[in-house]
Design goal:
- The chain is an alpha+beta fold and about 170 residues long.
- About 35% of the residues lie in helices and about 30% in strands.
- The chain contains four helices and nine strands, in the order αβββββαβββαβα.
- It has helices at about 20-45, 90-110, 140-145, 160-165, and strands at about 50, 50-60, 60-65, 70-75, 80, 115-120, 125-135, 135, 150.
- The strands form two sheets. Strands 1, 2, 3, 4, 6, 7 and 8 form a seven-stranded mixed sheet that branches. Strands 5-9 form a two-stranded antiparallel sheet.
- β3 and β4 form a beta hairpin.
- The longest helix is centred in the N-terminal third of the chain and has 27 residues, at about 20-45.
- The N and C termini lie far apart (about 90 Å).
Length: about 170
């Protein structure tokens, strides 16, 4: 005899066996966050020339790299200033995200990536130097795109500049 307490529904898997949307969302978020980091790493190892290799883009003017003589270190692109991802206003944060994505895209499109260290460091103990993409400085690409400004000591905050506050 067949006992039926509840009619069988098509696609019903029983209690707790349904779809787990939070698991899919967590997986999607992980992929969105991890994919650029993995892509930076692979891209840097494949295209780099010399002793230093790119590991990842931190923001528009800072990259993480590994060099033969040192463990992982950070390189600050000399001569430019880009907005900060943790900036004081939403306009600065948005422009900072655009700058880092732009640099990541330029690195992806470049056939050859070269790191040139100056031997100096900044106040945050990051190495200063240049990043050449197919022979042209990455800082020039960022300046041309309007995502960076020439670095000057005592520059006014990005939020003031973006909101049009006079100096």
């Amino acid at each position: 005899l067949r006992r039926t307490l509840m009619p069988r529904m098509r696609g019903y898997r029983g209690p707790g066996r349904g779809r787990r949307p939070l698991g899919k969302i967590a997986t999607a978020v992980f992929v969105i966050i991890a994919a650029p980091v993995v892509a930076d790493y692979v891209n840097g190892w494949m295209k780099a020339e010399g002793d230093c290799r790119l590991v990842r883009v931190i923001d528009g003017d800072t990259i993480a790299m590994t060099c033969a003589e040192a463990s992982q270190t950070r390189l600050r692109l000399s001569g430019i200033d880009t907005p900060e991802l943790r900036g004081g206003c939403w306009q600065e944060r948005l422009l900072a995200a655009r700058a880092s994505l732009f640099l990541r895209w330029k690195l992806y499109r470049a056939g050859q990536v070269e790191v040139m260290l100056s031997g100096e460091t900044d106040r945050y103990d990051r190495g200063l130097g240049r990043l050449l993409l197919d022979g042209r400085a990455a800082s020039g690409h960022l300046l041309d795109a309007g995502l960076a400004r020439p670095y000057l000591r005592g520059d006014r905050p990005w939020c003031d500049q973006l909101k049009g506050v006079p100096a």
